[in-house]
Amino acid sequence: MTNEGLVIKGKGSGIIDESLASLNTVKRDYLAEYDTAMEEDKYPLVRRWMKEEPLPFFKQLREERPVLVTPECTLLASSTDVKEALQLPNIFTTRLYQTKMGVTDTDPGYMTAHDDNALHHREKSIMKAMLNRVHIPLQDEHLLQLKMITPCD
């Protein structure tokens, strides 16, 4: 596959090859674009980059600005920061998103709508009981990665 003079050889799905190629082409300065954008355009830019160019966007965040404060949310790009935030549910709470996740007086909503409480642990235990024990560490890592971007979706 050729991408702006870059040749990628080997087996692949095409999608992965394109993502890898985009990492190795001319480097786009997302943070410079973000910093010069109008305030109302900043969050839409971030959402677009997360959807269309997540690998190079998060690579630059990890290297240059692992905590990005936007008008709508704060993104954590460092694995260490994400893990720490997930371990501190009283500080990094999900309460702000409970209405979006269907939490009402009569409906507890989704497991991810709850901080470190009994319902969260019960639902997580049920979910883990259905998984192959060998895959649980992989699932936990995957869930950490998903939660890293959940607040901005």
From TrEMBL:
An example Gene Ontology molecular-function term: heme binding
Domain of life: Bacteria
Gene3D superfamilies: Cytochrome P450
Descriptive protein name: Uncharacterized protein
Record organism: Candidatus Endobugula sertula
